[in-house]
Amino acid sequence: MTTGQFAAAAVLEEFGKPISIRHLPVPEPGDGEMLIDITYGGICGTDLHLQQGHLPIPTPLTLGHEGLGTVRTLGPGAAFDARGAQLAVGDTVMWASSISCGRCVPCRQYREPTLCEARRTYGVNRPLGEGSGLSGAWAEAILLHQGAVVVKLPQGVDELAAMSLACAGPTLVHALYERRPVLLGETVIVQGSGPVGLAAAAFAHLAGAEKVILVGGPRPRLDLAARCGIGDHHIDIVDGEPGRALDRARELTPGGHGGDLVIECAGVPQAVAQGMTLARRGGSYLIVGQYTDNGDTMLNPHQIVHRQLDIHGSWAFSGAHLVEYVRLLPALSSRFDLRGLVVPFPLADIRRATEAVANGTVIKAVLQSS
């Protein structure tokens, strides 16, 4: 059933083609479902790869896997958020992008819902042919299905601050809570100064790292990170000479021996070989940024053995990681100027917004639909 109303949605019709704005029917939520009026839909670097067909997804599709909005209608049985708080019309909420099946081997046996073989993700693999098509955050409304993890925003948290790390934050909760935690007093080197890199650096600060070294670029991004209080040192590897930048990062570590933990958040395959040389002997290398297959790279396996590195990979996030990110938002917002990382664009300006993300003139762009 539909409400008889329509909502604007940014739809990927074909790979490599401009995104169009369609007006799609607004459905009535069924059992366990809820209808959300979207305030902000975040633009993630992955969205740009999806638009170009770098990942196999169905089209046409309403894009957007990170969002924030207010409850419009609660279906039967949709009474509480993931932390047990009563939900009501008008509540501001965030939601996890994926719903795992709970039945496959990774879900049941490995307890790894991010590796679910049948994971359904808003804005990624829910095409228009399924229901109303309002299954992405780049729209005026979204229908959240039964099983979606929904969390009320803590009182007093700025909505744009919450959106600054809407995907990157829970992704790093997964990486730094479960794959390789930051230990008290460690020196942490982060490769990449986009949202994922800034989330890694911010969480490293909160976890008690003695020093956080951010290696990224271009310089305006690093300067903004510094103004927002993220990172102790900011090294430009984009506009500078890479070898010199890597040397500078090592010089800032105890004895010049390298970081206890190096976190790759750049998404550039060549960064992996560089990152291994930034870790101290006996250190750890955590790879988070290679979400899209950007191809192979040359690396020296001697670096792994000689440095006796522990290497970890971390893929995406689950609803539990979003819950923890939202719980930490008051602490993150009080320590870092997360609001300063975000630039809002009207939903109708989708092309200008995605171009700003692609050319790196903004760190975090969000689409505003209300």
What's the arrangement of secondary structure elements?
Blueprint: E1 2-12, E2 20-27, E3 34-43, H1 45-51, E4 61-62, E5 67-74, E6 92-95, E7 98-99, H2 105-108, E8 120-121, E9 141-144, E10 150-152, H3 159-164, H4 168-179, E11 187-191, H5 195-207, E12 211-216, H6 219-227, E13 233-236, H7 242-251, E14 259-264, H8 270-276, E15 279-287, H9 301-306, E16 310-313, H10 319-335, E17 342-346, H11 350-358, E18 364-368
Helix pairs in contact: 4-5, 4-10
Helical run tally = 11
Average pLDDT level: 96
| Fraction of residues in β-strands | 25-35%
Rg, rounded, reads 20 Å
Question: Your description of this structure?
Answer:
The protein has 370 residues and is an alpha/beta fold. Helices cover 27% and strands 26% of the residues. The strands form 4 sheets. Strands 3, 5, 6, 9, 10, 17 and 18 form a 7-stranded mixed β-sheet that branches. The longest helix is centred in the last third of the chain and has 17 residues, at 319-335. It is globular, with a radius of gyration of 20 Å. The two termini are 24 Å apart.
